[in-house]
Write a structure and sequence with these properties.
237 residues; alpha/beta; Rossmann fold; 9 strands; 19% strand; binds zinc ion
């Protein structure tokens, strides 16, 4: 067993509506951040990406958000790039944790697959309209691909819209779960917290499931999650 470094390192993918609150919270908690996003700030973002202002229009989101973390006394760097399977080794590096706040299903699966293959903790967050969901992954439990199998052609925030405060709420949950995972809290490891409509109810449905025996990601995982029975259970709905 190697000695754990004193500083926890996290990669945050997406510097927008979800990535903003996630990065600000984790940066303030003393986690060293690498923020990855290939977008620039646009006027249409400002209602839900409240970390940015008019003065940031046209600047790369990743580097601008990293500057804010540093201004708050944290440690962060921004990389203007898109997380893809082919760049995952380079971008993931030796991070302890990957947190997804992107608006792209393909990216979420690429993050999950890389984290599973490399034995890292990961959190995947999504928000749409009035709700969202957050998945907390650790080595040895069923993964994001076990649950959702493959990207589907779902409407994105950009197409279907999301109420501004919803991304703050979902981002806050993602950051809280991420902090739990890196401090060893496994309460929600392998669970999806689903918030159907935050205007009506704030309590999530907690969805737990066993690894899918034919999941290509889990079949290659260094710590196998396939020892448990393939039964999916929703704790309450
Ligand atoms: Zn899996």
């Amino acid at each position: 067993m190697t000695t754990r470094p004193t500083t926890t390192r996290a990669v945050i993918v997406g510097a927008g509506g979800l990535g903003g609150p996630i990065a600000l919270a984790l940066g303030a908690a003393g986690i060293e951040l690498t923020i990855i996003d290939d977008d620039r700030v646009e006027l249409s973002n400002l209602h839900r990406q409240i970390q940015f202002t008019d003065a940031d229009l046209g600047t790369p989101k990743a580097t601008r958000l990293a500057e804010m973390i540093v201004a708050h006394g944290g440690a962060a760097r921004g990389i203007v790039a898109r997380w893809t399977a082919s760049r995952a080794d380079e971008l993931g590096g030796d991070a302890d944790l990957i947190v997804d706040g992107s608006d792209d299903p393909e990216t979420k699966f690429a993050i999950s697959d890389w984290a599973v293959a490399n034995g890292r903790c990961y959190v995947i967050a999504a928000a749409l309209r009035y709700g969202g969901n957050v998945f907390a992954g650790v080595p040895g439990v069923g993964c994001y691909r076990c649950l959702f199998e493959a990207p589907v052609d779902a409407p994105s925030c950009a197409d279907a819209g999301v109420l501004g405060p919803i991304v703050g709420a979902i981002g806050g949950v993602a950051a809280a779960l991420a902090l739990g995972l890196v401090s060893g809290d496994r309460t929600y490891a392998g669970a999806l917290l689903a918030f159907d409509d935050l205007r009506k109810v704030a309590e999530p449905r907690v969805v737990r499931f066993a690894a899918r025996p034919d999941c290509p990601a889990c079949m290659r995982a260094p710590i196998s999650p396939l020892a448990t029975a393939p039964v999916r259970v929703a704790e309450h709905s």
